[in-house]
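User:
I would dearly like some help making sense of a protein record. Take your time, and here it is.
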Amino acid sequence: MTAPYPHPVSSWLDPDTGALIPHDELMAEMAQNRVVLLGETHDQYDVHRWQLHVMAALHGRNPNMVVGFEMFPRSTQPILDEWAAGDLSEEAFLEKVDWKTVWGFPPEMYLPIFRFCREMGVHMIALNCYRALVTRVGKEGWDAIPEEDRDELTPAKPATDAYRDYLFSLVSGPDGIFQQQTEEAKARKDHFTRAQQTWDRAFACNIAKTQTGDNPPLVIGIIGRGHLEFGHGTPYQLDDLGIEKVSVLLPSGGESGAREQQPGIARACFRLPKVHGTPANHATATDRFVREDRIRS
């Protein structure tokens, strides 16, 4: 990778060209899309503030909008509807969706986004499938899953070699099991890839369901960045489903923001200000993308 482009704080950069993009210009472009996916690192407060700011900017340009959330399985959709209708307190909402079990990250990071949706009348949609499906597909493969257990999903388009390499680079160092040339390593790679693609396909299928009729809404996707970068994951599955005009936006942090300057990683990256007092145990996006429980699922 070449030396990073100059990327001032609070600015958007095109990682393909190194050009800075004016905020108004980029938001006007994004508002014409069908889907805008806002990648996140789940445990970083500043990233969720950034998501909220982008949502507000896009809503001001295109109020025909829905917001989809990775953290909610489809079974929680009636509860999201209750929340949006103002029928639940925050405490009751979090309890009914079983937040501690389905997600577990501090709800204070996400509540401003949930409040925005309710206050502005923006429909919230659950993008995820039920967790046991991911585990089963990982272990058994899609064809082993009975039709009635597929949570209304279609089979994922097979992963490219580039996506597999990307996934393994995130979760395995040079001495990790995914780098080994053993039958056990091969089986775990296949298991892991199938599991990740189940999530990718679930997000894509549930987004695609909104894109019907004469005036489909702009969908904002709140999704972990590892499902979005370099056109892999959910964008790849959306393309397979025939959904066009999809863009990925990412936050950029670190001392140089160099990681987000790799060509093809996203349409644009926003340089966040340095966060002071961030807990020392907060990890980078690549460290946090897949926790050990996902590898073992």
Notes: Confidence is low (pLDDT under 50) at residues 278-297.
